[in-house]
Inverse folding.
């Protein structure tokens, strides 16, 4: 089954029922459309950190990541130096992986370039929203949209943005409503997508 009853008796996507933190994230964030630049950049960064790990690990450390990475304000991160990399490698509150840390700094610099060329990160990523006829099957690890956006970002010099990472980003930021059929939150996410003003 793709859904199971939660503590309140309502059925939810089964992946979220292992911890209360997951349920709160699932019910209030995951799958709801986002146009905020900082939140989109943060999510791309955190999905990169998740690579090879569980989202539960990253979610538990999210506040620590925000503190360590200047609340994911890209213009500030783009100015991080080698000393900041060493500081972050010594921060036990985050995932201390040099490649992933350096990727966040690199991607902040690439974001500056993308904004100059495309207007905003939000407008750019929402251009990759799949049409209703091109939605991936439930539970897919990648999608045509995530493959296309991954290729686009890699061409622009971004790092840790593979198709699986980008697909998780598209699900979480509401470009795809991947709440399971029967999930109590699915219709709420669908309604939010209906009234959402796509950035341009």
């Amino acid at each position: 089954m793709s859904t199971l009853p939660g503590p309140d008796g309502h059925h939810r996507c089964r992946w979220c029922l292992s911890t209360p933190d997951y349920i709160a994230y699932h019910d209030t964030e995951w799958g709801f459309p986002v146009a905020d630049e900082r939140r989109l950049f943060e999510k791309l960064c955190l999905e990169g950190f998740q690579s090879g790990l569980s989202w539960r690990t990253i979610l538990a450390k999210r506040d620590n990541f925000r503190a360590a990475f200047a609340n994911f304000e890209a213009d500030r991160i783009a100015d991080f130096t080698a000393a900041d990399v060493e500081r972050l490698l010594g921060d036990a509150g985050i995932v201390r992986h040099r490649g992933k840390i350096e990727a966040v700094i690199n991607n902040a610099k690439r974001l500056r370039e993308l904004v100059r060329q495309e207007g905003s990160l939000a407008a750019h990523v929402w251009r990759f929203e799949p049409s209703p006829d091109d939605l991936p099957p439930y539970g897919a690890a990648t999608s045509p949209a995530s493959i296309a956006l991954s290729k686009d970002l890699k061409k622009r010099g971004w790092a840790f943005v593979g198709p699986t990472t980008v697909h998780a980003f598209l699900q979480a930021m509401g470009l795809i409503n991947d709440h399971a059929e029967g999930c109590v939150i699915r219709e709420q996410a669908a309604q939010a997508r209906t009234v959402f003003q796509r950035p341009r």
Summary: The chain has a mean pLDDT of 96.
